């Protein structure tokens, strides 16, 4: 039975989720890198232009499909946690999976099962839709989260290294 504290995100949750994402960035020691706005998040979650700031022209204006999905955790009517995710695809398995971009529960609400409830909701999405995987990244130094993930049966992909292009390198490679 689904945890009643967890549900799909609503438009009315956008501002609260943006605050949570900024709190996560601070926790990950990367506040300066987080430029997410409510307009960005609303466009990504509910359609319209996604994949950058709303005025970036990142997608054609007729592409109104959401590119991002989310669940939130509530306590006493307040959004105190979130899971932001999108679809990936396993060519080896021949089916989609979920990539968890962000999972965050405010510190004062941790140890109450909300993180597990959010991950359970995503696992339920995978099972219901026939997806093969639920994947995410975690910072090497984040031992509390690593321990938590291992307790759920998640395993690290030891032989894989994440690569990323951003800023000038992305612009140069993209011909901009």
TrEMBL record:
Domain N-acetyltransferase per the UniProt entry, residue ranges: 4-168
Domain of life: Bacteria
UniProt KW keywords: Acyltransferase, Transferase
SUPFAM superfamilies (alphabetical): Acyl-CoA N-acyltransferases (Nat) (SSF55729)
UniProt cross-references to PANTHER family, sorted A to Z: DIAMINE N-ACETYLTRANSFERASE, GH14572P-RELATED
Family note: Belongs to the acetyltransferase family.
Protein name: GNAT superfamily N-acetyltransferase
